[in-house]
Specification:
Elements (H helix, E strand, L loop, with lengths): L1 H26 L5 H25 L3 H4 L2 H28 L3 H12 L3 H42 L10 H14 L1 H19 L5 H11 L2 H12 L10 H24 L4 H12 L5 H8 L4 H28 L4
Helix pairs in contact: 1-6, 1-10, 1-14, 2-6, 2-8, 2-9, 2-10, 4-5, 4-6, 4-12, 5-6, 5-11, 5-14, 6-7, 6-10, 6-12, 11-12, 11-14, 12-14, 13-14
């Protein structure tokens, strides 16, 4: 049990300390919201894409499309769609207004995978964990965007704001094509194919540069979360946000892990299931809620609450998986 505790502690604590570091730097007025705006853009548009290129381009092309990786992707695809449908039915009976319904569904299913899962997978399994997390990234990004747009269309405040099927598909296609993480993964797959089939590799100086830029992703993103943390958003009307947090941080990962274990997933694949279903709500969910007529105040509460709670729930799940020898 002690070994499981130490393993879990060492996996999660570096993330906690980086978030606390951001909170401290904000407290002493060394960093502010302007840093968050710049850091988030740098991480999303540059550092995380470089991490994808660094990790995937060095992987054998055949391994990337192995049956185990495809099984994890299929598991996430089916699981997140089932969860989305169930939640859409539940919020119709549990919540009174469409702006709250759309935000609740998005907050429960849309995770902060790129910023949260990649560093945690790296802490747990080193480069093998990072590569496995990136393998799942394309499906995760597409599904999160797809389901979020559908949720805000189904639960639009008025019929005039509901989107047709064609509009939904067009919006998702545009966001996918323009997403720098998707573009970087395609580039990395091309480089991996060249490396596997022809032996051609990126020059050492280029890989070294890519690696150094990629190293910025984790510290910058987590410090930015700490700087942007605002406890004032949690003062009033916590009930719905707490319910969403229970679904996001506890119920979904618990069900997904149980099904995954029964299906025979172990080790890194099982951890990817945990990270894809149990991470905090995505930061972009708040922006989408404001732009698509959702309840922005509720979205901010869900974002803050799930981010705080996920650090504890992830520790709990990792500890249990390690203790019972599933990872």
């Amino acid at each position: 049990m002690l070994n499981s505790f130490i393993y879990s502690f060492n996996s999660v604590m570096p993330l906690v300390l980086l978030v606390v570091c951001g909170m401290f730097l904000k407290k002493i007025k060394f960093l502010d919201g302007r840093f968050c705006d710049i850091a988030d853009k740098l991480v999303f548009n540059v550092a995380l894409p470089m991490e994808s290129v660094k990790s995937l381009s060095q992987e054998d092309f055949g391994v990337i499309f192995s049956s185990e990786n495809l099984r994890v992707n299929l598991f996430f695809f089916v699981g997140i769609v089932v969860a989305f449908v169930i939640l859409c039915v539940c919020v119709v009976y549990g919540l009174k207004s469409n702006p709250q319904r759309s935000v609740f569904v998005q907050g429960a299913v849309r995770g902060n995978y790129a910023i949260f899962a990649l560093p945690l997978a790296g802490n747990m399994f080193s480069d093998a964990g990072t590569r496995a997390a990136i393998m799942l990234l394309p499906v995760v990004i597409i599904m999160y965007n797809f389901l979020a747009v559908i949720a805000f269309s189904i639960f639009a405040p008025s019929d005039d704001e509901k989107k047709t099927v064609g509009q939904i598909i067009w919006r998702i296609a545009k966001s996918t094509v323009k997403n720098p993480l998707i573009v970087s993964i395609l580039v990395a797959l091309a480089l991996s194919f060249l490396r596997s089939e022809t032996g051609v590799e990126m020059p050492e100086f280029m890989m070294s540069t890519v690696g150094k830029i990629a190293a910025l992703a984790v510290p910058l993103s987590l410090i930015s979360i700490g700087v942007s943390f605002n406890p004032a958003t949690l003062k009033n009307g916590l009930g719905i946000a707490i319910c969403c947090g229970i679904v996001k941080n506890i119920a979904l990962p618990a069900v997904a892990l149980t099904v995954g274990i029964l299906m025979g997933f172990r080790g890194i694949p099982l951890t990817m299931i945990l990270l894809s279903f149990g991470g905090p709500t995505a930061v972009s969910s708040y922006i989408m809620a404001k732009n698509m007529h959702g309840d922005g105040e509720l979205a901010s509460k869900i974002l803050v609450l799930t981010t705080i709670c996920s650090l504890g729930t992830m520790f709990m799940f990792i500890f249990l998986l390690k203790h019972f020898a599933f990872i």
